[in-house]
Write a structure and sequence with these properties.
Layout (H helix, E strand, L loop, with lengths): L1 H16 L7 E8 L2 E9 L4 E13 L4 E18 L2 E17 L2 E18 L4 E16 L4 E5 L4 E7 L2
Antiparallel strand pairs: 1-2, 1-9, 2-3, 3-4, 4-5, 5-6, 6-7, 7-8, 7-9
Length: 163
């Protein structure tokens, strides 16, 4: 029993020692869900972070122009974070304003999501991450009202820590 407790204590100390420190923050650049976004990640504690963000996408296929503006926030809880590799779960929401010029439509979306992600620190200031988001989306506007479940908000990104 003492050996088991010793091993568990050693694993816990190693995880805490390599976790992101409280107060650490950085900028994110990500691509996924049909567009790109920028965000700020702020670590409230060793295992908990907030990530508010903005996104903008514009597509012109020669016939119609569509634009999409996104604002949202995520909460991330790191399950493990050892040797620069971390797995996290989280949740978030976003509001999306969409418009097209031909036909002229204006729609809005509310997305609520659960996240599962993996982050790898390339060095003390730069990391890469990928995540899958299981989301519920509610659409309303000129295109009609609808709702859906899916993984459309999944993506990959870079994080640049400033401290």
């Amino acid at each position: 029993m003492k050996k088991v407790l010793f091993v568990l204590a050693l694993v816990a100390v190693a995880s805490v020692a390599t976790a992101q420190s409280a107060g650490k923050y950085g900028f994110n650049v990500a691509y996924g869900g049909g567009g790109s976004n920028i965000a700020v990640t702020y670590h409230l504690s060793d295992m908990l972070a907030l990530r508010p963000g903005l996104g903008y996408t514009s597509n012109d296929n020669g016939t119609t122009v569509s634009t999409r503006f996104t604002v949202g926030s995520d909460v991330l809880y790191y399950l493990s974070n050892a040797d620069g590799m971390g797995m996290y779960v989280g949740g978030g929401f976003s509001y999306v304003a969409k418009s097209t010029d031909k036909p002229e439509t204006s729609d809005s979306e509310m997305d609520f999501k659960g996240l599962l992600g993996f982050q790898y620190a390339l060095n003390a200031k730069l990391g890469v991450y990928g995540e899958v988001a299981f989301s519920y989306t509610s659409l309303s506007g000129d295109s009609g009202d609808s709702s859906s479940l899916g993984t459309k908000n999944s993506g990959v990104g870079l994080i640049f820590y400033l401290n």
